[in-house]
Amino acid sequence: MKKLRYINIAKQILTQNLNDPEIIFYIILLSYDNSKTKQCNPSQKTITKIFGLSKSTQIRASQKLQDLKIISKVSSFETSNQYDLLLPKLDTIQLPFNIFDKFPIQITYQNIIFYLKLQLLKPKQLKNTNQQLLLPLLDYSLPTIGSQLEQLQNVNLITLIKLHHYKIHIIIN
Question: Which of 32, 94, 104, 114 sits in a 20 to 30 Å window from 13, CA-based?
Answer without folding.
Answer: 104
